[in-house]
Amino acid sequence: MRNRPSAWLLPLFLVTTLYAHNLLFGQSTPSSSEDSSRLTYHSSVSEVRLVFFATDEHNHLVEGLQKNDFAVVDDERVIREFRSFTRSDVTKLDVVVLIDSSESVLPYFEQEITEVQQLISQSPWGSGDNVSVLSFSGEEAHLICAGNCGSSFVSDRLAFLPRGGPTPLFDAVEIATNLLIQRRQPDVWPVIILFSDGDDNVSKASFHEALEKILVSEAQVYAIDVSSLRRPSNGTATLQRIADDSGGRFLPISEGAGRIFNDVIDDLHSARLVTYELPESDADFHSIRILPTRNLKLQFRCRRGYYFRPGGAHSEDSP
Amino acid sequence: MKRVFSLIFLSCTLPGLLAAQTGIYQHGTVVRMHMGECIPAGHGFMVAFGGPSTPMGPEPCPEYTLVADNVVFVIVGKLSNSLIPLAETIDFRFRKNEIAVRVDDSKHEVKFAIKEMTVRSEWDRMQRHIEERMKDQVDHEAEVRLR
Questions:
Q1: What is the ipTM metric for this complex?
Q2: Residue B79 belongs to some domain of the structure
């Protein structure tokens, strides 16, 4: 008799448990599966995409560069772990040629125009390349042609360029970067080829604003010093800085249009792309530097940094 | 206060540690680098132990945070081109109150002035604190954006 309660209590407990399970989960299972199918998981992982060029001690491009041959210093942090390391897959160019036609370059103007004409008309541009031409003098920049500057069309227009007056170099750089930003496409490489003596005496934009705009546009600047001065000047230093900060190159005009075009194309074909996770930082601006891990003779060229504003416009994406 | 204790601890323990390891390469990892001010002659953490540094030029000098097993060093190059290869592990040793870093597989070394030294455990704790603070800030910003 003492065992009788347990004899019916156990089945009762099991039935109750199963019923309770059905009450709890039986009805909720369908809606739970519906909910889970509607669930969207958000993950905000930001990635830095950095295009760079590697050269040896003789300034020759390095072909067999490996992932562990370099480290990126991003906002002072040394980064050795990369998400990817490949050759850059950009094949098309969006080029803005900026021609300084102000008073200070008039002594060299004929040579400058000759080189620009050669660059545009005799260089083997690709079918998908865009070439625009802007001149700057007086108080503003003048758009000569935008996008598909045909050689004969440009030659005619270059002969009648407005010339003389003060130099709005930094304003012209801003206009060029705005053009490139408007037409930005992931597989197109933005390039500015700047012919100037580097002097600016009338721009509304400051030097630093122009530099910031270049970094935001992610354009590579090839700065051609038209002054051909043997000694360094402020203008030369300005051009050098613009070229260095953008990851581009600085050349004297004596190198000629062929060399300028070859440099652009060499860079296009040899560009490497490395991606890595955005390092946490309070700063809007991340300075970047690439340094070798073993061979200190390797030289690396890339833009000086990028802007990252959480929740705002991200400018860390490169071509 | 903790910094003071750290410095007292370092000043008590380091001479023995240094003596024990003189001439032997230690291993470390560079985790931070920036171009900063050069250490002028007659300054620097190790000047008290002797050995004046050479006069500095106007150009910025590279400053590295070198993490070793027990101590974290902030070291400064004497010239703007005093660069360390940023490999995962580098070899260094103490030499005349400075740090000599082996820059390649040969015996070539570059000397660096020591600007700061921190006990590794203390440095790790500070890094964790910084990371947590930054994570909180990111979370807070994300929350504000969602509102």
A1: 0.73
A2: yes
